[in-house]
């Protein structure tokens, strides 16, 4: 499988992507029982184009074990959620695949963690456990090699103190924060004007849900910063997208989204039209790379915007606020 893993992270062109998609589809059709059964029931086991490949509804991660290998499961990631909610499970057989993916994406879109101080304000993810986001940020904190980097639960005083020390040392500061915790900071008018703030979405039942525009305006005003970046990631995916100041998300070369018609999951929409987001994440080699999400968005070229979630969907994960 090393050859296929290397193919995924060596993609440079659209032709490369489509060729690797074909290889990954064939591998998962053969090795992922749940996905194979799903494709068979749809009568879609021999797609002729990338647009004919079936996308597995993301809810299957709550009800089935989605694995594409006979390797032992090392551990599992679970989605965030409120008490009593059934949490999605991503069974991880090859942690190195996840690390290879998120490290490359971070370096490409955010920068080299070795040159940064990375602060994390993600209390709910820590408390619930089994978080893919915590796993990622912990590794980035270690890679930074700086003793100012780290996680903060309720100690905002220490966070601000370390932020100021990092700036004084000429370091670039990155702050990952869940929405409600960042709003707590903003209400105290804490100046973080020299940090890159990356919100990871969601009020987690702690506050009234806001549109992304409303949230970002509150944070910009309260934290004295020019813009708020966002991360689009979820338990069921091994890859992330990051947005810039315009709310436009960019993807790694091994990830692509398609926008489907809301009432017809097998019909894809043209660019600029809002619909359901389907994701191809080739880093999901050992689970399923073809996921039908419950997010709404619209695509433009190799970028996309988030427009919210389907009605009655679980409010959880990253950037899941209705707009």
Task: Describe it.
There is one protein chain. This protein has 2 domains: 2-72 and 248-309, Luciferase, Domain 3 (Luciferase, domain 3); 97-232, Rossmann fold (3-Layer(aba) Sandwich). The radius of gyration is 19 Å and the shape is globular. The strands form 2 sheets. Strands 1, 4, 5, 6, 7, 8, 9, 10, 11, 12, 13, 14 and 15 form a 13-stranded mixed beta sheet that branches. The protein has a two-stranded antiparallel ribbon with strand order 2-3. Helix 2 packs across helix 3 (33-42) and helix 9 (179-187) packs parallel to helix 10. The chain contains 10 helices and 15 strands. Residues 312-323 have low confidence and may be disordered. By secondary structure, the protein is an alpha/beta fold.
Keywords, separated by commas or semicolons:
alpha/beta; two-stranded antiparallel sheet; 10 helices; Rossmann fold; disordered C terminus; Luciferase, domain 3; 15 strands; 2 domains; 323 residues; 33% helix; 13-stranded mixed beta sheet
């Amino acid at each position: 499988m090393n050859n296929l893993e290397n193919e995924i992270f060596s993609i440079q062109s659209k032709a490369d992507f489509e060729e690797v998609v074909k290889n990954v589809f064939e591998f998962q059709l053969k090795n992922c029982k749940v996905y194979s059964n799903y494709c068979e029931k749809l009568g879609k086991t021999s797609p002729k184009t990338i647009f004919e490949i079936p996308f597995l509804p993301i809810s299957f991660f709550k009800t089935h074990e989605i694995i594409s290998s006979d390797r032992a499961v090392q551990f599992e990631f679970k989605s965030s959620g409120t008490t009593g909610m059934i949490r999605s499970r991503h069974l991880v057989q090859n942690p190195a695949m996840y690390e290879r993916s998120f490290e490359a994406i971070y370096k490409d879109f955010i920068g080299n963690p070795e040159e940064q101080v990375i602060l994390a304000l993600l209390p709910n993810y820590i408390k619930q456990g089994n978080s893919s986001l915590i796993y990622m940020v912990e590794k980035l904190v270690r890679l930074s090699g700086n003793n100012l980097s780290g996680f903060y639960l309720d100690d905002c005083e220490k966070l601000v103190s370390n932020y100021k020390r990092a700036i004084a040392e000429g370091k670039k500061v990155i702050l990952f924060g869940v929405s409600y915790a960042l709003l707590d900071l903003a209400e105290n008018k804490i100046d973080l004007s020299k940090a890159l703030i990356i919100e990871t979405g969601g009020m987690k039942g702690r506050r009234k849900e806001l549109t992304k525009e409303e949230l970002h305006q509150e944070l910009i005003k309260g934290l004295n910063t020019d813009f708020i970046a966002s991360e689009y990631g979820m338990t069921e995916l091994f890859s992330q997208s990051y947005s810039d100041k315009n709310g436009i998300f960019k993807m790694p070369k091994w990830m692509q989204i398609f926008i489907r018609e809301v009432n017809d999951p097998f019909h894809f929409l043209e660019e600029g039209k809002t619909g359901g987001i389907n994701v191809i994440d080739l880093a999901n080699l050992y689970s399923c790379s073809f996921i039908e999400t419950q997010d709404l968005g619209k695509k433009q070229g190799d970028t996309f915007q988030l427009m919210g979630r389907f009605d009655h969907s679980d409010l959880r994960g990253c950037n899941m606020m209705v707009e």
